[in-house]
Specification:
Blueprint lengths: L20 H5 L9 H19 L6 H8 L3 H4 L1 H24 L1 H18 L6 H15 L3 H11 L5 H30 L1 H22 L13 H12 L2 H29 L7 H6 L4 H9 L1 H27 L5 H29 L4 H65 L1
Helix pairs in contact: 2-6, 2-9, 2-10, 5-6, 5-7, 5-17, 6-7, 6-8, 6-10, 8-9, 8-17, 9-10, 9-14, 9-16, 12-16, 12-17, 14-16, 15-16, 15-17
Length: 425
């Protein structure tokens, strides 16, 4: 990939928050110059990120078969990738504060796609898990840097929509990765399937770097540990940000658990579906693409907390429907789970970017860290619950997580009302 030509504004330059109206007006807006290129570039980055991150999820029954391991052991090929991302997202966000969002995103994709081309040759489950952990750590430079880039380069009124499009790219990547791997694996095995995903990710990475506009509002920060820790403490000390981080983690606990285990459920009786059909089940991610990209309108109608209640209720309804022994009802349940999850994720992640007035990359990184910790926890706990109690056990874990989302949102509603009462005194 070509070297970055990003030329960040140095420390001491005028920040976007204090810029003149002319500088604010130069931010990207729907229909304006550069907005479409930016949206498509980050959409492709989202596609590559989720396609690589979850490339083994639909293939877990095949991986279990080749290495002779249970679902709970094979699930580590997913948990290691999301765990690596969760651990490294904060350090990578710090690098993006110093060297620029575009530079870090480009480097992260370059390393991740290189590892992706090595994954098909893993000689053992242990080697596969290690490669997946490295791949997840490399991908850590994408999520927080992308949302920080959008917060700096896009006008505030268009931010939810812009982040929703990035999240929509995530959903397309997750869907296409699973559908493609399902059909390829049915004919040529799981190794060929993850190899194809690696090649697709290379194409996305090259197009991303060529299309993404150079930033105009980036202000370089410091890499000094004391400054970074101070920023992190400030974000963790904000009650609203803490609630948003917990909500992201809980939503992803549901999603990670459901989609890690669903392949096992559908390949077993009473459904006994072939691998290609199981992979095609992930076409329901298209619903997530729509719900994420329309999250801005949902917030406009219901408010942020109302949108989170709606997302939680939709997810819970889907979990309950998925308990049915009828395949159409199971599919409807997956549609609702996916719709609720992506809407909730888009609302929460955009709220983080709006709430943070400084250190946006760190604020987004903390959200992404919590989010992917939730994914790792969901993958592992969901698989263990499935081993212990079947699909009912996995659904039980998901319902507990949704209850947590609703409870935290209720606390936020009460806190907001208390602030309003104090303001009127």
């Amino acid at each position: 990939m070509p070297a970055s030509t990003e030329a960040p504004t140095r420390v001491g330059a005028v920040s976007p928050a204090s810029a003149t109206s002319a500088a604010v007006d130069s931010r990207l807006t729907p229909g304006g110059p550069g907005y479409r290129r930016m949206s498509f570039a980050l959409f492709l980055a989202g596609v590559a990120t989720f396609a690589l991150l979850y490339s083994t999820q639909a293939l877990l029954p095949l991986i279990s078969g080749e290495f002779g391991v249970a679902a709970s052991e094979a699930s580590w090929t997913v948990a290691a990738a999301t765990g690596g991302l969760a651990l490294f997202v904060l350090p990578m966000s710090a690098l993006s504060e110093r060297f620029g969002r575009r530079t870090v995103m480009t480097a992260s994709l370059a390393v991740a796609v290189t590892v992706g081309l090595l994954v098909p040759f893993a000689p053992s489950l242990t080697a596969l898990v290690v490669l997946r952990a490295v791949q997840g750590a490399a991908l850590a430079g994408l999520p927080a840097s992308a949302t920080a880039y959008l917060a700096e380069e896009v006008r505030p009124k268009a931010l939810v929509t812009a982040i929703g499009l990035f999240v929509a790219g995530n959903s397309v990547g997750g869907m296409s990765g699973r559908v493609i791997t399902g059909w390829v694996a049915q004919e040529w095995g799981w190794r060929a399937a993850v190899g194809v995903i690696g090649a697709i990710a290379v194409a996305c990475a090259v197009a991303f770097r060529l299309l993404l506009p150079a930033p105009k509002h980036f202000v370089a920060g410091s890499l000094r540990p004391r400054v970074l820790l101070g920023t992190v403490r400030a974000h963790l000390g904000d009650p609203l940000l803490r609630r948003l981080y917990a909500i992201g983690a809980l939503f992803m606990t549901v999603f990670g658990g459901v989609y890690t285990v669903i392949g096992y459920r559908l390949t077993e009786a009473p459904f006994s579906l072939p691998q290609g059909i199981v992979g095609s089940i992930f076409l329901v991610y298209l619903v997530g693409t729509v719900s994420a990209s329309t999250a801005g309108r949902l917030v406009g109608r219901l408010g942020r907390r109302g949108a989170l209640y709606a997302a939680g209720g939709t997810t819970a309804t889907g979990l309950l429907l998925s308990l049915a022994g009828s395949l159409p009802l199971v599919l409807l349940g997956l549609v609702l789970i996916t719709s609720g999850f992506f809407a909730g994720h888009a609302v929460a992640s955009s709220a983080v970017s709006k709430t943070a007035t400084h250190g946006r990359a760190q604020a987004s990184a903390l959200y992404q860290s919590a989010y992917y910790i939730g994914s790792s926890a969901g993958s592992t706990v969901g698989a263990l619950a499935f081993h212990a109690g079947g699909w009912t056990g996995t659904v039980g874990v998901g319902l507990l997580a949704v209850l947590g989302v609703v409870s935290i949102t209720v606390l936020g509603t009460r806190a907001a009302r208390a602030e309003q009462r104090l303001a009127t005194v």
